[in-house]
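Please check the following.

. . .
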Amino acid sequence: MKSCFLTDQGKVRNHNEDAGGVVTNEAGQTLAVVADGMGGHRAGDVASQIAASKLHNKWHDASLLNTPEQSEAWLAQAIQEVNKEIHSYAETHEECQGMGTTIVAAICTKYFATIAHIGDSRCYLANSYGFKQVTEDHSLVNELVRSGQITAEQAEHHPRKNVLLKALGTENAIQADIKTFSFEQDDRLLLCSDGLTNKVNEEELTELKEYEGDWTVFCQKLIDQANERGGEDNITLVVVHYSGTEEKEGADEC
């Protein structure tokens, strides 16, 4: 696997509340994570850093996952454990009370990819069938769109666009949405925070499907576009490309 992780503070925020990264475990399988924190007094960056670092640490010790069922079970349990750690930390640190974070995580193997998410950080898949969003935002405006109360176009400018219905760490127990699909040679995944998707539209993101250059250049171009259009939020993204050129599983990070 080839991969790239980039994060940027943006043009307005005075610190970065996003976190993430790409890790390959001893079994040679890849875990990609993007987390977008929320909470006052810089608590958002505490929540997102706990989420990303704890998942990465757990992944280092993970055994080879041979089936989608094993992969889904690992993500479900790991996210539940991380949720409890964030919630417990907030309860014992007054300045962090109410903090939480979105999470989108992808386990990538030579045969399948398993995606788990909570909140409005997203995952997109580009393969021979096209380009599509594979996560469903846990947000107020998305529920309004799903129920037919507003259109997708109205959602883009809705005053409560940033209201989440679910976030990691805000409750003692939470359930992530998890799905698995085939992952084949030349398939690509894009994981990102809403600092990107609020500024770069889906049509522009479809370049992921055909891109053949350096993934660092690709990711930086998207960050630059978001910043050129205001950069009001932190911007974070991960690309994982099943290049099919390696003899064994692994990730070449940018």
User: Anything to note?
Assistant: The chain has a mean pLDDT of 92. The first strand starts at residue 2 and ends at 8. The CA atoms of residues 43 and 93 lie 10 Å apart. Residues 2-135+165-253 form a domain with the Phosphatase 2c; domain 1 fold (CATH 3.60.40.10).
